[in-house]
Amino acid sequence: MKIVIKVALSISFILYLFALMIILFLGSRGFQLSDLSMLEYIRYSSNFVPFKTINTYFNAIFDGSMNMDIPIKNLGGNFILFLPMGIYLPFFIKKINNVSIFSISMITVLFVIEVLQLVTRRGSFDIDDLILNMLGALIGYGIWKTKFVQNKLQNRTTLTIFN
């Protein structure tokens, strides 16, 4: 049974990473700024002010100034997108066993992703995306650390792949 769980989680993790790459780097983008220099692109497509985008979307939800799909997809999507990572990372990497190490690891991963999206012009750098992604990952980590999940894992022996 232990090997079945390892294989199932490994396959699901690979599929998750594949879907993540498609969403983050190959999906359609709403704006085209390819004629701009890199500095101009960074200036026009980046948000370095925490909660600016989140606040804009919340205001749009309450005042109806935007199609409701846009803020819900952006807020919910960014929140949910990295929730599975909160479960996968501590499962596969045993050293990520406390919230501090997990948080540092995730902030690093998310920052690199945001910068890559900017440099490849496949998206923008938005600090609010990083905040929402991090919150989702922390919720996933919280699920991972619940007594229910940990008890299930204890009954199946250690399931780590990387030590």
TrEMBL record:
Keyword entries, A-Z: Membrane, Transmembrane, Transmembrane helix
Membrane-spanning segments: 7-28, 75-93, 100-119, 125-144
Limits of the VanZ-like domain: 13-145
Cross-referenced Pfam families: VanZ
PANTHER family: INTEGRAL MEMBRANE PROTEIN (PTHR36834:SF1), MEMBRANE PROTEIN-RELATED (PTHR36834)
Protein known as: VanZ family protein
Species per Swiss-Prot/TrEMBL record: Lederbergia citrea
